Amino acid sequence: MGILIKGKPVADKIKEKLKKEVAELKEKGITPKLAIIRVGDDPGDMAYERGAIKTMVSINIETDVRALSKNITQSDFINELKKVNNDKSIHGILILRPLPKQLDENIIKNVIAPEKDVDCFSPVNVAKVFEGDETGFPPCTPSAVMEILKYYDIPLKGKNTVVIGRSMIVGKPAAMLLLKEHATVTICHSRTIDLPQVASGAELLVVGIGRAKMVNSSHIKNGAIVIDVGINVGEDGKLCGDVDTDDCINKVSMITPVPGGVGSVTTSVLAKHVVKACKMQVGL
Ligand code: NDP
After folding, report:
1. Residue range 66-76: average pLDDT?
2. Cis bond leading into 259, ω under 30°?
3. Cβ–Cβ < 8 Å for 253, 37
4. Of 168, 229, 265, which is best to mutate to test ligand 1, by the most ligand atoms within 8 angstroms of its C-beta?
5. What is the pTM of this model?
């Protein structure tokens, strides 16, 4: 039977290290600060915002929530964003997405200051992920995947890895971060032919598709390590991942649970990015 590899110890370790770094910054008179820009009051956004604030408070990072009207115009939004870009007391900016339809993300992503863009919205940071340039900020979720793999000492060099999902926020950057660590990566998506056959060749399977429990034991190689990025509400009304954990547990060697896996590490990575942004901006 495989073991559940949980996110909490990973998040705790990241937070402990950050607390020390933030204390050292405070001694120098510097306090890292994250601005969260939220448009409207979507419950999912509000839940993520509460989680992010709780994590920042626990590390002594300041937060500044800019809650904007769901009807805000593009030009008013851009003016607000420019104010945050230019505010020297703010080191990181998180824009909760997707934005409402009247706001054009393709324009806005070019306005956010790349050095404050802690969740990889700016094309500058996207390019840095693809270039393997560590001065950038990969999206927090695939970074959380990498933190889990590192914490549990999972070697990646040459590892036969399949990523299912190719979104800009999960699949593609996860594939690039794994490639940077010398994994041999295949990316699958909705047009992949015979997904079970491709996935069951993987020693490491990373799944981010948004389909409750779609990945089952037919997709799993014996002894595989499975990282389930999915967050869905199952037929029973409970949170579940993209992987049917009960069906796979006897075949895998390790698997992340949902809830309690990747999602519980994401805000700690966000905090790590804020501290990194702060240090870079003050020249440390
Ligand atoms: P998207 O909908 O943007 O992308 C889904 C991807 O999965 C697409 O590339 C799509 O392929 C692929 N896909 C969909 N259906 C299938 C299928 N039947 N077979 C193979 N591939 C398929 O979702 P996100 O990337 O934003 O999110 C993915 C999951 O991760 C969701 O469950 C989401 O809730 C979760 N998530 C979790 C986070 C966390 O912190 N843990 C944060 C962000 C997301 P194609 O490109 O061909 O359409």
Report:
1. 98
2. yes
3. no
4. 229
5. 0.97
